[in-house]
Specification:
Blueprint: H1 2-26, H2 40-62, H3 70-93, H4 100-103
Helix pairs in contact: 1-2, 2-3
Length: about 110
């Protein structure tokens, strides 16, 4: 049963890393989040950080990676996870770089 948990974590982490890479390279965002994301670059970087954290957790759980001390592993994973979460939140909350005021300045 332990391989199911580690395999699922590794699969979800790998999927997030692939989606983050696609978002960084092409600007494509999943259709469910497309309406809310104003900065695709930040969204892709956040997905990379979160995916890396989950992927490493799954690989350590499966025994593929050598385990370091649990303190370093947990702090590193939590740091990556919260960094990714912060970047994704910023990609949703920051205004778009090109607004309607830039396209049509007042008085022009």
């Amino acid at each position: 049963m332990a391989w199911a948990v580690g395999g699922t974590c590794a699969f979800v982490g790998l999927l997030a890393v692939v989606l983050g890479t696609v978002t960084l390279r092409t600007g494509w965002v999943l259709p469910t989040a497309r309406r809310h994301v104003t900065r695709p670059g930040l969204h892709g970087l956040g997905a990379l950080f979160m995916g890396t954290s989950i992927l490493l957790q799954g690989l350590v759980h499966l025994g593929i990676l050598a385990a370091v001390s649990w303190e370093a592993r947990v702090l590193g994973e939590i740091g990556c996870l919260f960094t990714g979460l912060l970047l994704i939140a910023l990609s949703h909350l920051l205004p778009p770089r090109r607004t309607l005021e830039h396209a049509y300045p007042p008085g022009a």
